[in-house]
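Quick one, T. Sequence first:
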Amino acid sequence: MSIRLFMREHFAYLLFQFLMVLFIMFLYWLDGFRNVDTAIYSVAISTLLILSFLFGRYVKRYSFYNKIISQPKQMEAALQRDAKSPEQEQVELFLQDLYRIYQNEVQTLYANQKRHLQFMNQWVHQMKTPLSVAELLIQEDGETDKKSLQEEIDRMKRGLDSVLMNARIDTFEQDLQVEQVNLKKLVSEVVSENKRLFITNHVYPVISIDEQFVVLTDTKWIRFVIGQFITNAVKYTFEEGKKVFIEASSQTGNVLLSVKDEGIGIPTADMPRVTKAFFTGENGRKTGESTGMGLYLANEICGKLGHELSIESTIGKGTTVHVLFHNLDFVKRGESEDVNIENG
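Structure tokens:
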């Protein structure tokens, strides 16, 4: 097999040698073949030289040919070094670079698959609680408590939204639609969607965003991010009568959105890991409902949208989450206003 591959690769050499022999014989023919021995000697020497060259070349490439015609048993075969020439060395370097790219893609795919599987397992486990509660409410004698039933349905809807976003995050670019978005209008809509969550927990939102703040983003993705901030703010505010402040300000041509709660705060030891996948921390163990994916997804989405996410927190005083919209156009007119959910 190796000799056949070699001959196919060097067929041009042999053809060239044959043409050279014909050229030499043609010259002697033009000369009248006055010295036939010299002509034969010239042909023999040139043929011997080219055959010697090809033989040496074959010996030098023998191990490389055996490597590329054999059936590989593992991907690590691409890392073997059998090159004997600059061309072969370059081919091996190319294959090694391809191997590293392949390894990175496989590891990324495996990590994503593992993340999806773990998230689904946690989500299915957590959805058992609202389903069980809803089932008990339906089975109770008398009139069904629609308010409590709706609360459980809302919990399932929020969980389902997280699952869908987690599934779509890997194909983010295919589902991206960037447009100019009125920040106050968007925040007000998200707050309205979470109205029952605020009322149930006796926590009240205060929106302080100028009407003319406009940011360039994807409405669907950033709506999920803001909704996650609001859900966390309410979830970790255990005292009634507290507020969630949602504010926006200009930052040297950029827009900074802040969601601040008056909840229990995040322990200092947990702060570096709150945006890691499946990290629940001390607060997550207190509620027993955390999947550890909310802030992870929010951070991933902000990164893909080109926004900057940062978190500040003080134990016992609350947490503030910031999203910085970079290099965005906005117009600032009029006075900002506070909006209470009970008035909307």
